[in-house]
Amino acid sequence: MGFRKNVGYISSILIALLFSNCILTSVSQNSLFEVEAKPIDKTSLQGKNDDVRTNVFEMANKLREATGEKTPNDYIVVLKDNNFLSSVRSLAGEAKSEGAALRHIYDHSLHGFAIRVPNEKVLEEIMKIPEVDYVQPDVKVKAFAQNLPTGINRVDGDLSSTKSGDGKGAVNVDIGIVDTGIDLNHPDLNVYRQVSFVSGTSSGNDDNGHGTAVAGVAAAKDDSQGVVGLAPGARLWAIKVLDSNGIGSSSDIIMGIDYVTQHAKEIDVVNLSFGAVGKNDALHKAIIKSVAAGVTYIAAAGNDGKDASSVFPASYPEVIAVSAIVDIDGKCGGKSSISTTVGKDDTFASFSNYGPVVDLAAPGVLVKTTTRGSSYTSFSSTSASTAHVTGAAALYKSEHPGASPSDIRNALRSLGSSPATTCDGNGHGYFTGDRDNNAEPLLYTAWASTTELAIRNPVSSPPFRSPFSQ
Ligand SMILES: [Ca+2]
Ligand SMILES: [Ca+2]
Ligand SMILES: [Ca+2]
Fold this sequence. Notes:
Blueprint: H1 2-6, H2 12-25, H3 29-37, H4 42-62, E1 70-79, H5 85-97, E2 101-106, E3 112-116, H6 120-127, E4 132-143, H7 150-156, E5 174-179, E6 191-196, H8 210-219, E7 227-228, E8 235-240, E9 247-249, H9 250-262, E10 269-272, E11 274-277, H10 281-292, E12 296-300, E13 311-312, E14 320-326, E15 347-348, E16 360-363, E17 367-371, E18 375-379, H11 382-399, H12 405-415, H13 452-456, E19 468-469
Parallel strand pairs: 5-8, 5-10, 6-8, 10-12, 12-14, 14-16
Antiparallel strand pairs: 1-3, 1-4, 2-3, 4-9, 4-11, 7-19, 11-13, 14-15, 17-18
Helix pairs in contact: 2-4, 8-11, 9-10, 11-12
């Protein structure tokens, strides 16, 4: 890269000319001088002009668009696949010497790094590094949180609670909550590992509440206190990538995915209850690699009442995308007389995104769960419905340790209720009001007849509904 440094102050066109010549001839600067001394050959000049155009074209190709609210001067540099940690480190060092501040190094879910550049020129220099596949602006991604409408809060106290658990038993499985963190001291949650990739924070402790709510639905302990999750007492990995406002940058989220991939032998299932509209190739690449390493990802469809095809990560084919329904009484059939502002009992939630990318539906309204301060709350969102599927996937994985991510997806889909399922008066039945022609199965976990969860509530409270009050 010393060569580029020497010519760093010459115009970019001249750089391109020299650089393309260098590549074409693979010779020293002395030879370049000889080339300059030759009479101008119009044919060769035409060739060089083509080279310049090619180079500019390549540069434009190397700047990959990412949609969302950009964070000025922050970029994700994705290296070509044949680069391993030593070269990633040395290339990151090179970017640093060009004037970039290094924010993260990725080595498990993709090879690359996150940088902050002082100006465009530095970015251009980094894009010229041949090992760079592409550079993508860093963007903001938000938790799919939804504030409870007051009308819903008002009926909260009237919600029927389901039968309590027997107060014992834990599922032997590891769940990654890539979110705002988890209340590390919550007595109803088994937080096993914690880490933060959000600047200004030093642990995976939750400073928002969203991650703790998601964690409780998936895995609150079966201990006669508070609530119980679908995979009770599962080991929770608090992987903080979203800040106290529930907002994160794609570079931090990729670091979270990288961490999961590094621990792919331990982490079975990962919950992604956040997203944004548009595309983000670097994040997609990281998730593809992580799924290939055996980790099952569940992603929220989003809360905007629109087709989720434009929402990532829900639209990535490698993840299990989840929509939300209203369930008031823990039973099918739409029997509850209580209506919410987002729909009646056993109907598609009005805020839920929908569409062909959605794999499963699950309850996502007025879901009782854990929150910060060793406390409890209710929340409504596709984040809540997604956490049900995360818990169910973990439960399935605990019973079928060899299941691949696609095995788990196929199993949950085939075990779910369909429009043809006749309501059995309990949990096995479908919902109404789906917004499209894609009748995604409704999560159903009573297959788990060998688990104490199902044995505990064989008839009256199907375990796939909201976490039960204990
Ligand atoms: Ca509990
Ligand atoms: Ca119901
Ligand atoms: Ca649908």
